[in-house]
User: Fold this.
Amino acid sequence: MNMLDDMLPAVEPALKIPARPQDVNMYGDIFGGWLMSQVDLAGAMRAIERSRGRVATRAVSDFQFLRPVKVGDMVLAYADVEHVGRTSLSIGVHVYVERRTPPDFDAVVQKVAEARLVYVAMNSDGSARTVPPP
Ligand SMILES: CC(C)(COP(=O)(O)OP(=O)(O)OC[C@H]1O[C@@H](n2cnc3c(N)ncnc32)[C@H](O)[C@@H]1OP(=O)(O)O)[C@@H](O)C(=O)NCCC(=O)NCCS
Assistant:
């Protein structure tokens, strides 16, 4: 995928949430940490689905903020299982915004971030468990 591909993938997003005024820094742009949290949530939901159970975030790499997110943007995060190990799952998350501005409020799509996260499948006692076959 092109890093600045401004077309939404033709699948359901793992997460869709508006960026709100309480999520901004002093310049009016959305905090990076807020977006990182949404990316972790999106990746975790995909990892839970694939591993059929509890997971913990183990590592985050290649986190890139490609463009700023603005208040009012609809944030859509898409999560793909890229690799399954014994207890771990590597998930690629790609984040887009739909921005609607006056006068016509037509949606303009921009890719704003991407990251790779590793989750470990967990037992209820907090130990790692084997990821089951699909
Ligand atoms: C998850 C946890 C129980 C696993 O501990 P562990 O059994 O000692 O296992 P490890 O962390 O060494 O490795 C587990 C898997 O993660 C993989 N892994 C570990 N670090 C990795 C990294 N930096 N990048 C990629 N994969 C990694 C290992 O290769 C292994 O994968 P595999 O079983 O598919 O081969 C433990 O690391 C933990 O509790 N971490 C904290 C998790 C957490 O609280 N996250 C939320 C933070 S707020």
Notes: Residues 56-59, 85-88, 118, 120, 126, 128 surround coenzyme A (CB under 6 Å). The first strand starts at residue 15 and ends at 18. The chain has one domain: 15-121. The helical segments are 32-51.
